[in-house]
Structures are given as C-alpha cells and as structure tokens.
Write a structure and sequence with these properties.
binds adenosine monophosphate; binds manganese (II) ion; alpha/beta; 18% strand
Length: 326
C-alpha cells in the first residue's frame, strides 16, 4: 500500500477539506473502540466539522459516562465527505453493511493484523490502544485535545491496557495518560467505571460461563450462549469482559471463550501468556488481534466450532511446547 511521504500532513489536509465526516468503530465495541470514536469525533466537532459516529451494534450502556455518547448511532444519516475507521483491523470489523456501503479514507489502528484497507493508513502496532495514537497525533492534525475528548481517549488507553498492565505497556503510553489527565481526564473515576464497576446482570452472566469452565493441560476454556444472556437479563452480545477474568487463572498458557452469537456464528476470544503469540490462530479463522489477545467470528454450531478450535489450539500449543516458543 503506497503511503504519502508526509502522512500527518495528508491527514491534516483531509480534515481541513472535509465538511461532513463519518467515523466508524468496530462491532461489539470495547473501551478503545468507543473511546477512540468519541475522542476523535469530539475533537473534529470542536473544529466545526459536521460529524457522525457509527457502530453497527450501537453504544453499550456502560459508556454513557462519556461526553458525546448520545451521538453514537447504528447507521449514518448523511452522505460523508470523509470516512474514518478507528480500532478496526479489517473491513469485516465494521460489520458487513457498513463495509459494503463505504470506502474508507483513513484507517487508524494499532493491531498487528491490520490489512491497511484505507486510502491513508495510520497503523502503529507499538501503541497500546488506538486512543494512544489519537492522543499523540490529533494535535499534529490540527485538533487539540479538549476537556471533552480527553476522558474518552483515556478510557481507550486504560481499557485496552487493562489498567496499564498488559505486556505491551510502554513508558510512552504512561506519558500519554499523564497528558490526558492534564487535559482534563479524571483517571481514578474513569478507571473505576471502565474496569472495576460491573452490573448485577453482567456478573450473573459470568456465572453461567464459570459453571462450564474446563481445563486440559495448560489450556482453559468455556462458552456462553444467548440463553445465558437471557437468563441473566444481560443486554448486548459481548462477553461482559469475562475473558479477562478467566485469563487471570494461574499456570495456564492459553484461555479461550466461545460466545455463541445466536446467528450461526461463534465469537471466539483467545488470551495468552507472554511467549505465545496467538495471532496466527485467529488469522487462520479470518480474525485478528494482538499477540496476547485475539479473536475471530467463526460460522457454525457451538459444539462444532468448540471442537475444531480446541483441536487447532492444542496443536499450536504442542508445537510451541516443542522448543518453538517465541
Ligand atoms: P476480544 O477477544 O473480542 O476481546 O478481542 C481481542 C482482540 O482481537 C481485540 O484487539 C480485537 O480487536 C481483536 N478481534 C476480535 N475479534 C476479531 C475479529 N473477528 N477480527 C479481527 N480482529 C478481532
Ligand atoms: Mn477494540
Ligand atoms: Mn484497541
């Protein structure tokens, strides 16, 4: 993919030429998707741009603490001059309808599996979160970080780093977090809200997954279904961060969560300990992610997908165990 010599200048120009800007984040949005969407959207709005912020699944209620949440919708109403994606490694992450309807002008992301599908691609795999890229570069693109956009961006950084503790953490990410605090973000409040507080329904939902927990050697897995969500009155088809709780289990190399979406697709999440890069596994199923956290959407029935993925993951672990650990 050809990139202009001065990418930052090209983006600055694209921003200044556009009147109507559409920003899209990924399906089943996490804190980095929503934080980046709102952080960028608010910064552009403050520059006088007409903006629309879109996520195919809409906004999860847990992000209603962030300024601008009410702007997030499932489909744009206007015809945009400029289309930007945030935290999406491939077009499929937008959702099929959005991916088929729009050409992406600017792709801003930090996944090692990013396919550079935009006309301009700002992909920095050293960044802990897409929000970190935005916090660093928005001023270069003519958009200062404001008291409204700073909390959204810090939410992205805090959530993707699980509270500054993932293996990809850097001193730079901490400096960016400090800058965002100085720009008006309340770290303890955002941290508590995004990573500590949970709804009663979410914890009930975890319970269903925990009862089916299984282990074989150094692999742990479980599944969750639409019936579990219904029984717990949990809204949304995400895992309520269950995978991050499961990956705290000691003496395990890889953790897998099978989330039955109820539409013939199973969302698979992998988490691994340092030394096990699980992106090849996710890519094998047209998914993507980071070395220690990856996912894929796989068509099929739960039992079928579970058996197939467990087998391929066990094969992979066996290979790594035989002296090829990277
Ligand atoms: P999750 O397991 O959904 O928390 O996702 C872990 C990481 O993998 C995140 O960085 C996601 O963006 C990425 N990821 C999850 N599902 C997919 C998918 N279907 N395609 C590409 N990347 C994914
Ligand atoms: Mn994300
Ligand atoms: Mn991210």
């Amino acid at each position: 993919m050809n990139q202009p010599v001065n990418l930052d200048q090209s983006i600055r120009d694209a921003f200044s030429q556009a009147g109507k800007i559409l920003v899209i984040a990924h399906v089943r949005p996490d804190g980095d998707a929503i934080g980046s969407l709102l952080g960028l959207g608010l910064a552009l709005k403050e520059k006088g741009k007409q903006i629309e912020l879109v996520v195919e699944d809409g906004l999860p209620a847990s992000f209603k603490n962030l300024t601008g949440w009410e702007m997030v919708r499932k489909w744009p109403a206007m015809k945009p001059d400029l289309v930007i994606t945030v935290d999406c490694s491939d077009l499929g992450r937008l959702g099929d309808d959005l991916a088929n309807e729009f050409q992406v002008d600017i792709n801003i992301d930090h996944h090692i599996t990013n396919l550079n599908f935009g006309r301009l691609n700002v992909v920095d795999t050293r960044a802990v979160a897409t929000a970190e890229i935005l916090a660093t570069r928005l001023p270069m693109w003519g958009c200062p970080i404001s008291p409204a956009s700073a909390p959204a961006l810090l939410t992205g950084l805090v959530t993707d780093s699980l509270g500054f503790r993932t293996s990809n953490m850097t001193p730079q990410a901490l400096r960016v977090a400090a800058d965002l605090m100085e720009a008006g973000a309340d770290l303890p409040e955002l941290y508590q809200h995004a990573l500590v507080n949970r709804s009663f329904e979410a914890v009930k939902y975890w319970g269903a997954g925990f009862t089916r927990l299984q282990r074989m050697d150094r692999l742990v897995w479980t599944s969750i279904t639409p019936a579990d969500r219904q029984a717990a009155h949990y809204n949304g088809r995400d895992d309520a961060d269950m995978i991050n709780i499961l990956s705290a289990i000691n003496d395990i190399d890889v953790t897998i969560l099978f989330n039955d979406q109820g539409n013939g697709h199973i969302k698979v999440s992998w988490r691994s300990q340092p030394g096990f890069d699980i992106t090849p596994l996710a890519l094998q199923y047209n998914g993507g992610g980071h070395p220690a956290a990856a996912g894929a959407d796989i068509e099929g029935a739960l039992a079928e997908v579970e058996a197939e993925v467990l087998q391929s993951t066990r094969c992979y672990l066996k290979l790594k165990g035989n002296g090829q650990k990277s």
